From TrEMBL:
This is TMEM205-like domain-containing protein. The chain crosses the membrane at residues 46-69, 89-108, 120-144, 187-209. Residues 1-26 form the signal peptide. The keyword Transcription does not apply. Coiled coil: none annotated.
C-alpha cells in the first residue's frame, strides 16, 4: 500500500468516525471558547488532538521502541545510515504536529484570558516544538555529518559491521583520530538525545492535562 493509499484510508476512517458521531461538529463550545464559532472550535480541537497524539506516538516509538530494536538487530553502520534518513523525517513530523498543536491551543485559549494552567500547557507545547526544531535544524545535521566522518575512519579500521555493541572503543585506544571523533560525536549526539527527551517530557506533561479533560 502506497503512501497516498494509506493517507486516504486514514481519512476514510476519520470520515466514518464523524458519521457515527455527528454531534462532534455540531456541539456547543465549552468554557473559554464562547467567542469562537462552535464548528471552528471543534475542528481546532480535532486538529490539536490528532497532531498531539501523532507527535506523542511517534516520539514514544522512535525513542523507546523502534530505535532499540534496530540497534539490536542491524549492523551498526547500516543502523546509523538508516537513522540518518529517518531522524530528519521524524523531527519534521513531530515539529509540524507540535506547531499545529501550539497554534490551535493558543487560538482556543488566548494568552490574556487563559488560566495559569492553560499558560503552562501552552509553554509545554512551545517547548516541545522548540526542542524538535533545534534537533531538526542544528543537532541532527551535525550528528549526521560527524557520523559519516566516523564511519569513514571505522571502515579504515575494518569495524562497523558488528550488530549491537561496537568494537569502536577498542579501536579508539590505538587510533587518536577515532578517539577525537568519538568525543565530538558523543557530545553532539548527547545534546540531540537530550533535546529529544525534553520534547517527549513536555508532551508527556500535556498528556496529563488532556486526560483531565476527558469525560466518559
Amino acid at each position: 500500500m502506497g503512501w497516498l493509499s494509506r493517507f486516504l484510508t486514514a481519512v476514510a476512517f476519520l470520515a466514518v468516525g464523524v458519521i457515527f458521531s455527528p454531534e462532534t461538529f455540531g456541539s456547543k463550545s465549552d468554557g473559554g471558547n464562547h467567542d469562537h464559532p462552535p464548528k471552528l472550535v471543534s475542528f481546532l480541537k480535532l486538529a490539536h488532538l490528532l497532531c498531539f497524539s501523532t507527535a506523542w506516538g511517534a516520539a514514544l516509538w522512535v525513542t523507546f521502541i523502534g530505535g532499540i530494536i534496530m540497534f539490536k538487530n542491524l549492523p551498526r553502520h547500516q543502523f546509523g545510515n538508516l537513522q540518518s534518513k529517518m531522524f530528519p523525517a521524524y523531527f519534521s513530523l513531530v515539529g509540524i504536529c507540535c506547531a499545529v498543536s501550539v497554534a490551535s491551543f493558543a487560538y482556543l485559549h488566548p494568552f490574556k484570558s487563559a488560566s495559569s494552567t492553560e499558560k503552562y500547557q501552552l509553554g509545554f507545547l512551545v517547548a516541545a516544538f522548540a526542542f524538535n526544531l533545534s534537533n531538526l535544524v542544528v543537532f541532527t545535521p551535525m550528528t549526521i555529518e560527524m557520523m559519516k566522518q566516523r564511519h569513514k575512519i571505522e571502515r579504515e579500521e575494518k569495524i562497523g559491521d558488528e550488530v549491537g555493541w561496537t568494537k569502536n572503543q577498542e579501536a579508539a585506544k590505538v587510533n587518536p583520530k577515532l578517539a577525537a571523533m568519538n568525543k565530538k560525536f558523543g557530545m553532539i549526539h548527547g545534546l540531540s538525545s537530550l533535546a529529544n527527551i525534553m520534547s517527549f517530557g513536555s508532551l508527556a506533561m500535556h498528556s496529563w492535562y488532556l486526560s483531565g479533560k476527558i469525560n466518559f
